[in-house]
Amino acid sequence: MAQLIDGKAIAALIRAEQATRAAYLKENGIEPALAVILVGEDPASKVYVRNKARACKECGIRSEVIRMSAETTQAELMAEIERVNSDPALHGLLIQLPLPAHLDEAAALAAVDWRKDVDGFHKMNAGALLEGEEGVRPCTPAGCMELLRRSHVPLTGAKAVVVGRSNIVGKPMALMLLEANCTVTICHSRRDCQRRRHRGRRGWQGKFHHRRYDQAGRGCDRRGHQPARGRHAVRRRGFRRGAGKGRLDHTRARRRRPDDHRHADEKHAGRGRKAWTLTGR
Questions:
Q1: Packed helices 7-27 and 139-150: angle between N→C axes, nearest 10 degrees
Q2: CA geometry: angle at 38 spanning 81 and 71, to 5°?
Q3: Checking DSSP bridges between strand 234-237 and strand 159-163, what pairing results, if any?
Q4: pTM for this model (two decimals)
Q5: Which residues of the chain have pLDDT under 50?
Q6: Which residues are catalytic?
């Protein structure tokens, strides 16, 4: 039975916990602060930045939004990143993506101090994730994992499917699930997800369904994954191309059936059906 995860309730609980932690830091003379660099006038980016500022306020974290024009040069952006890196009063830095087309996103993300990298995109944090070490995790997959943990979803031994392989969500999500002892399958735009799901449920069915034997007379055993020279190999006798008069002999059971269903004689249509059915239905 499917389990409904209440994301809003869990988010409210997490924000209350973070507010308690932020209050403790303030009592000890530390005001946690997050800097967000917004370049350009992308409407969606503005909404995201506004929501992040609101969430920081609810958690008792000071937020500083640095707005830069769409004509900002790469040098100006790098200089602003360096300023935030060197400011001890700012504990985290987030560069709102996407950046304008003329700016190099990879260079900007690499310039962020990995200790202030809130998004977890820096190679130091990405490498820590790959190695299973402690570090900042990308927020979206980290949030998904938190929802699963707080909903008490058993992950050890579970089969998980991740749709997408981006550096922001897909890849880190797969690594986090693997870290939680899941068996992970990644589906992406170059792969038929429905076919992969079907083959995963049926094992080797998709492979040996169309390789029982070929035009050169090479066959396979009844399990479908042994070479023609195996102990249960199939061989062809009296084969004539296109005539459909050849036959397949099982080297051990000596059962036979026609080499091609489409050209088989009617009297052989049902012979040895049980012994030769390799489609795995």
A1: 110
A2: 85
A3: unpaired
A4: 0.64
A5: 198-218, 220-226, 228-281
A6: 52, 96, 119
